[in-house]
């Protein structure tokens, strides 16, 4: 007969302590019902142990909450850094594209100026030859050349001078293109270096 009595007591304790949502109401009467008659000192020890366990649980929950918030912040920072890297990469690509377009435009302009210069030089050369031949015929036909004309530059030397000037000018577009590239290179290097530094951080 004793066994049913213990089982009944256990069932009643479980039923009485159960609360909606898993909550339990702990009183001295319920503790004595579970553990039997106990002294006041024993009850105080149990309550202190329970309070310590609850305090430790709350601290653990608070620590976990802080860790979760910190992880969320780190994830957000990583996402922001990735977004900045993508923006920087796109900015570098835009700078490279714009520089290439500027270089292509300048090369086209230099090519046009080179053609125009050679055309002008050729016209001036033909005009100089025509003028010099006419002047020679006029001097031979009517009078002796003056002292200044005898000591002046010959048409051949003038043609040679124009030819030398044309050769030097043909190298000018390349030098100008190199000068422009040298001016653009520091900006491109600085942009790439800034992108690489941000990519490593």
TrEMBL record:
Keyword Coiled coil on entry: yes
- What are the start and end residues of every segment in region (Disordered)? 1-21, 123-165
Q: Where is the composition biased (Polar residues)?
A: 123-139
Q: Give the residues annotated as coiled coil.
A: 43-95
Keyword entries, A-Z: Coiled coil
What name goes with this protein? Uncharacterized protein
């Amino acid at each position: 007969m004793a066994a049913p009595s213990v089982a009944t007591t256990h069932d009643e304790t479980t039923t009485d302590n159960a609360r909606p949502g898993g909550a339990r109401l702990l009183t001295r009467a319920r503790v004595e019902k579970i553990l039997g008659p106990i002294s006041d000192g024993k009850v105080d020890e149990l309550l202190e142990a329970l309070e310590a366990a609850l305090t430790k649980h709350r601290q653990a929950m608070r620590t976990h909450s802080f860790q979760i918030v910190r992880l969320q912040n780190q994830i957000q920072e990583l996402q922001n850094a990735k977004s900045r890297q993508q923006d920087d990469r796109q900015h570098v690509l835009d700078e490279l594209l714009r520089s290439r377009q500027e270089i292509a435009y300048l090369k086209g302009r230099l090519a046009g100026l080179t053609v125009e210069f050679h055309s002008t030089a050729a016209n001036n050369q033909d005009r100089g030859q025509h003028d010099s031949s006419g002047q020679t015929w006029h001097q031979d036909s009517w009078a002796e050349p003056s002292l200044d004309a005898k000591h002046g530059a010959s048409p051949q030397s003038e043609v040679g001078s124009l030819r030398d000037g044309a050769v030097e000018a043909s190298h000018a577009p390349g030098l100008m293109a190199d000068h422009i590239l040298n001016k653009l290179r520091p900006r491109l290097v600085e942009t790439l270096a800034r992108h690489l530094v941000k990519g490593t951080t």
